[in-house]
Design brief:
8 helices; globular; binds nicotinamide-adenine-dinucleotide
Length: 250
């Protein structure tokens, strides 16, 4: 089946850089009208929009801290007002505050759970009504291999990313009758600002656990998201697709 995105409308949260930007650009390249969401990085969001528009495709941007429900609602309402529709929601916004549990503060636990998990709840809650009314929707939530296999120093991050998986499977069951699919992409190690600061020793150690012998590219995660967001994936829901060079095999 041809994956035709012409006329489709998508929101990609946290798409001012990194994996989110690659997802926004790849969706737009297929003809999707994309809303680029950002929390603080206006310049980054402009770059994503410019990259899309310079190729003759359609994008606009909207500032919202999606970890706050009212702002997530503003993002969905902006999209509906501007484009009259919402077909695809990609919950990509995420953050880390790595620390061994002995040293992890309550603030860092709460922040990571709020940004990674509650944001996903917030945006899905706001988007689900219009999708149900239309009897169509594609939701793709970004988890992580850390949410599947665990990772020392990431109890907060892993809990949030496992939470995204459980949340997505439950939502997939709730919404399937309305032809809405909910799937998860779990990236492995992708060089972005999220992973820049990790110690070199840890990066080398991680590399030795990747069967394909290299780190992934944001564009490779984006291709998986776009597949799940398209018509061709209409019979897939409640699934987790690892994009990790074989790092985690079920
Ligand atoms: P990144 O830090 O470059 O991008 C994260 C984006 O989320 C940024 O644009 C940031 O501004 C945005 N964001 C953060 N909090 C937000 C909020 N409250 N509201 C709106 N936007 C917010 O990192 P990335 O590597 O591109 O990460 C993208 C997603 O992929 C994240 O969910 C991350 O957990 C996941 N992931 C990344 C890797 C990796 O190796 N890079 C691996 C597994 C999963």
């Amino acid at each position: 089946m041809n994956n035709d995105f012409t006329g489709k409308v998508a929101i990609v949260t946290g798409s001012s850089r990194g994996i989110g930007r690659a997802i926004a650009e790849t969706l737009a390249a297929g003809g999707t009208q994309v809303v680029v969401n950002y929390a603080k990085d206006l310049e980054g969001a402009k770059k994503t929009v410019d990259a899309i528009v310079s190729k003759g495709n359609t994008a606009s941007m909207f500032q919202a801290d999606v970890s706050v429900l009212s702002q997530a609602e503003d993002l969905i309402n902006y999209t509906l007002d501007k484009y009259g529709n919402l077909d695809i929601l990609v919950n990509n916004a995420g953050t880390t505050r790595d620390q061994l549990i002995m040293r992890m503060s309550e603030e860092d636990w709460d922040l990571v759970l709020r940004v990674n998990l509650k944001s996903t709840f917030n945006c899905c809650k706001a988007a689900i009504k219009p999708m149900m009314r239309k009897r169509y929707g594609r939701i793709v939530n970004i988890s992580s291999v850390s949410g599947i296999a665990g990772n020392a120093g990431q109890t907060n991050y892993s809990a949030s990313k496992s939470g995204v998986i459980g949340f997505s499977k439950s939502l997939a069951r709730e919404t399937a009758a309305r032809k809405i699919t909910v799937n998860v992409v779990a990236p492995g190690f992708i060089p972005t600002s999220l992973t820049n600061d990790l110690p070199d020793e840890l990066k080398e150690q991680t590399l030795s656990h990747i069967p394909l012998g290299r780190w992934g590219e944001p564009e490779e995660v984006a291709e998986a998201v776009v597949f799940l967001a398209g018509e061709a994936a209409g019979y897939i829901t409640g699934q987790v697709l690892n994009v990790d060079g074989g790092m985690v095999m079920a």
